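Late entry, evening session. Most of the bench is empty. Finally got around to the prediction I had been postponing all week. Sequence below, unchanged from the version circulated by S.P.
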Amino acid sequence: GVGLTCRQDVMELMEKRVKSRFSHRQYFLFGPPTFEEYISIAHGILCPKNVTQASWSSHVKTVLNSSDNKIRVYLERVYNFSRSIQLLKNCLTWVAVNLDSSSPKINVGLFEEKLIDVFKDSKAVLIRSLSKLECCLLIAMARLSTKHANQPFNLEMVLFEYKEVSLIFDNI
């Protein structure tokens, strides 16, 4: 069995019989960071401790701590979308990699470009790339899923449903 608790002293509360059967594997999960912690993590990502370039560090600090800054607003949108540190790393790494000698400072345009990718609905992009036949088969599968209350179905059933749907559309 698996147990889940927010108590740190759970081991002391177990009976001796239960403790003997317990595998003693524990996973500690921490809650999501606050937005200020998120900004601090962003600063750590953009300014690693082994890089000591004062001008870059002060630029990053100014960009991240300025309350009227659009970049901070964009970071807040990413934070509200997903508090994932990995997503933050991906966004900031992409921004840092796309800096060049003509614009060595972090700018709003880079964030806007990356956020379009972050907030893009991957399913919608995938559906737009499907052919008409694939879309019709997808509709047939969705209809089957609704008809049969999420029971499994096979290709033959999908083909039969596709024929029914195509007859309906031919009559319209």
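Two things to note before I forget:
The radius of gyration is 26 Å.
The chain has a mean pLDDT of 81.
Will write this up properly tomorrow.
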